[in-house]
Every structure is written in C-alpha cells, then in structure tokens.
Model the fold of this input.
Amino acid sequence: MTEQKNGVHNLVMENRRRLVISGVKEVEGFTETEVCLYTDMGQLTVKGRNLHVNQVSTDTGELIMVGDMVNSIVYSDKPRRTPNNFITKLFR
Done:
C-alpha cells in the first residue's frame, strides 16, 4: 500500500483538450506528445497530441495544459529522478 500524501490534488479535463491540474510539485519535462510531472499523489504522465503547457504556478501548484487530444493520464509511484538523470535523458 502506498503512503498517503499531504495536500490537495485535483485534475479537471475539458473535452479531452484542456487539463487543469492542482497539487503540482515539479514539472520534470514535456514534449508535444508527453508531459511528465510530480504531484501530491505521485508521478503523473499525460500523453496526447500537440500538448502545450500554458501556465504553471509555483505559488498555487496549478498547471494548465491544452492540446489537440489527451490520450492517456497515468499515475506512478516512481521516485523522483535526480537532475543528472533528466539531463542525461535530454541529450540521448
């Protein structure tokens, strides 16, 4: 069983084109087909077409993204990557 996190986490999707996510702690990275971030409830990966992060607020922990189509939203309990791993992944 996973440990319960503190904080509020909500995800609101409108017409599979717009996503508003609260409880965002960190954005790991994003492309036009995938956005990977960490929330109060664990790692969250959103896949779709032509995804764009419109707004990220570090004060409120809210992220707004839009795209042509959101295809999947997947939660994971993977631990956060270290900065070196992310930078290594960028330059592969």
Summary: The chain has a mean pLDDT of 85.
